[in-house]
Structure formats: structure tokens, C-alpha cells
Amino acid sequence: MVSVSVSAVGRPIALAKDLPTTLEFPGKAAENVTISDLKQALAAKFPKFYPSRQKLTLKGEKKALTDEATLKDAGIVDGDELSAKDLGPQASWTTVFVVEYIGPLIIHPLVYHFPNIFYGGPVQHSLLQRYVYAMVMLHFLKREYETLFVHRFSHGTMPFAYIFRKFVISAEPVCHSNPKTESALHPALHITIFWVVLP
């Protein structure tokens, strides 16, 4: 049997008020128990403190222990103490990127097609602005497709608080009527630059 005690690092964890606690794994040795098993056992005692919210470290250290590592690999022996930290609410990476890329797909059309609301009057969009608007929309549609059907993420989650960091981006260069945004360069050159710089 292997047992490990877990205590809160710093201030008490609201979702796991009864820490410190001891996690026991009867009939198992340190080489058969992973950090993920510890997190699952901790979540069994404190259901709201789910595994992706947990950061487990060796006592007195800051580096998080990886889920795949066994206790033996991490240098943990029977009776050792670990520190736990609450990472806060987590969101899956797929959710994060879907929300981030949906922002421009909503904001750009609103600003582009309803200039009376944002600029107080009609806007005559230049040829360049129409090309750029189309490229921006295609770019973010492509990103949504990749997020849903192509990418696999190495980390399961990220802090929920970061989810809106790219939701709002400026639509001013695409949507506002400004002769200074025009250029003598051919629109095909602008499109080429757009595809090289933004992927």
C-alpha cells in the first residue's frame, strides 16, 4: 500500500476545505500509481475540485507534476507530502479557440454591414476593404474549421478567465471609410501579404 498526504499551498482552497488529507492506494506500489490517479482520488474526496483545476507539486517546489508520471518517477515515496493549488475554473482548448475565433466572425460583419450604428452614417467601402473583409472572414472560418476538425491539443484545458482575450479585435481598418487606407498596390498583393502574415 502507498499513501500520500496532500495539503494546500498558500491560502486554503475553498473547494477542498478539509485539506490536508491522506490519499491511500491499498495493494499498489509507487510505480503503479500516477499523478493522475492522485488527482482522481483527490477529486473523489472533493468533487468540485476536479482534476484539471488541480496543480500538484512536491512540498516546497513550484514545478507541477505531470499527470503521466508515476509516484516513483516523481521521487515520491510512501508517506510523502504534496502541495495542491487551485488553478481556478478551466475550459477546454477547443472551447477557447471556438469562442476566440467566433468574435471576429460576429464583430466584423456587424461593423461592416451596419456602419450607421457605429459611425453615424453610411460608409462607402473601397475595393481593398471589400477584399480584406472577405479574407478576414475566410481566415477565421478556416480557423474554426481547424479547431473543430483538425487540431489536437496537448493540454486538456486552460484557465477560463483567458477565454475572451481575443474575442474582440479591431474592425476599424476593414470597415471604416478612410482614403488613407487605400494604396496604389494591386489588391492581389494585399491578399498575398494577408495570407503570408496572418496564418
Automatic annotation (TrEMBL):
One of its GO terms (molecular function) is oxidoreductase activity. Gene3D superfamilies: Phosphatidylinositol 3-kinase Catalytic Subunit, Chain A, domain 1 (3.10.20.90). GO terms for cellular component: endoplasmic reticulum. Coiled coil: none annotated. It holds the Pfam family TECR_N. It is found in: Endomembrane system; Endoplasmic reticulum. Keywords: Endoplasmic reticulum, Lipid biosynthesis, Lipid metabolism, Oxidoreductase. SUPFAM superfamilies: Ubiquitin-like (SSF54236). Residues 34-82 form the Ubiquitin-like domain. It comes from the Eukaryota. Transmembrane segments: none annotated. It is a multi-pass membrane protein. One of its GO terms (biological process) is very long-chain fatty acid biosynthetic process. PANTHER family: 3-OXO-5-ALPHA-STEROID 4-DEHYDROGENASE, VERY-LONG-CHAIN ENOYL-COA REDUCTASE. This is Ubiquitin-like domain-containing protein.
